[in-house]
Amino acid sequence: MSRKTREDSQRTRDTILDAAERVILCKGIGRTTIGDIANAANVSRGAVYGHYKNKIDLSIAMCKRAFSSTEMPARITGESALQTLYREGIYLLRLYSEPGPVQRVLHILYVKCDESEDHLALLDIRNEWEAQRMADTEKLIIKAVANAELPQTTDIKLANLYLHSLFDGIYSTLFWTNRVPEHKWEIAEKLYQAGFSGLRTAKELSSSSNV
């Protein structure tokens, strides 16, 4: 019998993780078993345990694989902070909207993962992902204010929260409801364009307007 190569092992891991995404997305983390994932991957339970200690260990690997595939667009020389912020926002919105590992994993972390003690490690991954995205956009908003692209009175925290609420609202409306049956991405981009302009014009995002 030939020895299993590193490439063979990686293919098996990917097969298991692919199956985990499908099964957990359908059943939720709490109701999914190692046996369910093994059956979906067409491998033995022993093969799964040969790579992962338990279901949570496997789920963590599933999340890390999805997020490691993301790469923010390269910064463009001479581009303003607001232009970069807009372009990266479009990237994130498309990432959330297009079927794939990131969309499936985010759906699992936000919808299919209850806030139990058993799932704390997964909730930490969710919080880290969210915190990193918030930190990235906040830096660009700060730069935009410093460069006078946004009013000096802009409430940085509030503007950042507004931007991410915009992402969430567009995604939820277009992809979790039947309000827009077709041309979803074109409409998503138009909604984002309209909402993004609010960063420049909304008086409510000014620190001087806060009570």
List keywords for this structure.
211 residues, mainly alpha, 0% strand, elongated
Question: What order do the helices and strands come in, and which of them pair?
Answer:
Elements: H1 6-27, H2 34-41, H3 45-49, H4 55-68, H5 81-97, H6 101-111, H7 120-146, H8 156-175, H9 184-201
Helix pairs in contact: 1-2, 1-4, 1-6, 4-6, 4-7, 5-7, 5-8, 5-9, 7-8, 8-9
Structural write-up:
With 211 residues, the protein is an all-alpha fold. It has nine helices and no strands. It has helices at 6-27, 34-41, 45-49, 55-68, 81-97, 101-111, 120-146, 156-175, 184-201. The N and C termini lie far apart (74 Å).
What's a concise summary of this model?
This protein has 211 residues and is mostly helical. Helix content is 67%, strand content 0%. The chain has helices spanning 6-27, 34-41, 45-49, 55-68, 81-97, 101-111, 120-146, 156-175, 184-201.
